[in-house]
Write a structure and sequence with these properties.
- Keywords: Elongation factor, Protein biosynthesis.
- By secondary structure, the chain is an alpha+beta fold.
- It folds into 2 domains: about 70 residues, Up-down Bundle (Monooxygenase), CATH 1.20.1280; about 120 residues, no CATH class.
- The chain contains 6 helices and 5 strands, in the order ααααβββββαα.
- A 5-stranded antiparallel sheet has the order 1-2-3-4-5, covered by helices on one side.
- The radius of gyration is 20 Å and the shape is elongated.
- It starts with 12 loop residues before the first helix and ends with a helix.
- Bound molecules: zinc ion.
- The site of zinc ion has 8 residues, from β5 and α5.
């Protein structure tokens, strides 16, 4: 029997993406910056930024120590792969649970679910060709929430979930605004939800988006 202490997953997908971008920045610095003092500042800056994501979790900080050693792409990849066991997966979604979130949607094609890496998503989003609608599933404060809407007017723009510039479309949801009244709420979001999940570096915008749909 091994005696190592098992660390429970504590890194969210958006936090993992933040770490990934910090590490990428570090590798770039090594190929462009020659001044050792500047490099040191970048290294420890990256470590600080990452540690600051996890206040009051000092016991986990050693996991990030090797960041300051990273110089090349391959080291970055190994480091990031080593973090995978610590990533919190999205709630396991089956065809049944998804069906319950969208009781009125008929015959949703959900075969793609088996190919989803639940450690790589903050939300689940897909376009259903048959109903011409985009479906989104969020884990909002521990509870699954499904939203569906039309998805049109594809263009280049900034996504209101991940804040990145890219291919976006207008997601328009019909939400309850009063006891018997409904209103349309529209937002530009990434066309490719997988890519969007890979770009999310915080939950701020995503939570605003959800709050806006709820009110
Ligand atoms: Zn996005």
């Amino acid at each position: 029997m091994t005696s190592h202490i098992e660390v429970q997953p504590f890194i969210r997908n958006d936090q993992f993406n933040f770490i990934k971008f910090q590490v990428k920045h570090l590798v770039n610095a090594h190929s462009t910056v020659k001044d050792p003092d500047v490099l040191k500042a970048v290294q420890y800056g990256a470590l600080d930024n990452i540690i600051n994501l996890f206040p009051e979790m000092e016991e986990h900080y050693r996991i990030f120590d090797e960041i300051v050693e990273i110089k090349e792409e391959i080291q970055a990849e190994n480091f990031l792969a080593g973090l995978k066991p610590y990533i919190i997966p999205f709630k396991q979604l089956t065809e049944k649970t998804v069906g319950k979130l969208f009781p009125k949607a008929k015959k949703l094609k959900l075969q793609f679910l088996k190919d989803i890496d639940f450690k790589e998503i903050t939300y689940l989003g897909w376009y259903d060709i048959r109903s011409e609608k985009k479906f989104l599933i969020f884990d909002y404060k521990g509870k699954l929430m499904g939203v569906q809407g039309t998805f049109r007017h594809k263009t280049k723009g900034v996504c209101s979930l991940c804040n990145r510039h890219g291919e976006v479309g207008m997601f328009m949801a019909n939400v309850k605004s009063g006891k018997e009244t409904y209103t349309n709420r529209g937002n530009y979001i990434c066309d490719d939800s997988q890519e969007c999940n890979g770009n999310l570096q915080s939950l701020d915008r995503l939570e605003n988006f959800i709050e806006n749909l709820k009110n």
